[in-house]
Amino acid sequence: MAELEEQIGERIRRSREALGLTQRQLADLVGSSPPNINYYEKGSRSAPLSMLIKLASVLGVSTDFLLLGTGPQMFVDDQLSEMLRDFSALKPRDREIVTQIIKFMKEQAKE
Questions:
Q1: Residues 87, 70: Cα–Cα separation, whole Å
Q2: What is the DSSP letter of 111?
Q3: Which of 19, 21, 48 is closest to 36 using CA atoms?
Q4: Region of 31 on the Ramachandran plot (φ > 0 left; ψ -120 to 50 alpha; else beta)
Q5: What pLDDT shows up at residue 9?
Q6: Model pTM greater than 0.70?
Q7: Residue 90, SS3?
Q8: What is the CA 35 to chain-centroid distance, rounded?
Q9: How far is CA 67 from CA 11, 39, 70, 80, 104, in A?
Q10: Which has the closest alpha carbon to 96: 87, 108, 106, 107?
């Protein structure tokens, strides 16, 4: 089991680094703490399924990739990757404002 957790952790770490995110930034984006991200990446603690889903979404990878190493490794293009880094650098309140703007625009697009 520890070997699988280490493999999952390695895929989380590689995906995070490919986006240029720090452990703190990733933790903020998924609602966790930097120590937890560190534990997941080292494979010393298993991430709950709900956290794996959040990590996959934020990192732009599939859960299949995180869990099994199969499927598309990255869904994020360079522009989206840069936007994610910019977003993660914002203060929490500013992130909330950007999130609300995106939700508003998404609703407007449905009409």
A1: 28
A2: -
A3: 48
A4: left
A5: 96
A6: no
A7: coil
A8: 15
A9: 8, 16, 8, 23, 33
A10: 87
Q: Which amino acid is at 98?
A: V
In this structure, are residues 72 and 65 in contact, taking their beta carbons and an 8 Å threshold?
A: yes
Give the span between the Cα atoms of 23 and 38, in whole angstroms: 7
Tokens matching residue 5: 């957790």
Q: Distance between CA atoms of 7 and 67, rounded to whole angstroms? A: 8
Q: Which amino acid does the sequence have at 20?
A: G
Reported as a single tens digit per residue, the pLDDT across 62-95 is: 899 999 988 766 555 667 767 877 887 888 899 8
Cα radius of gyration rounded to whole Å, the chain? 15
DSSP letters for 16-78: HHHTT--HHHHHHHHT--HHHHHHHHHTSSPPPHHHHHHHHHHHT--HHHHHHS-S-S----H
- How far is Cα 91 from Cα 68, in angstroms, rounded to an integer? 34
3-class DSSP state for residue 110? helix
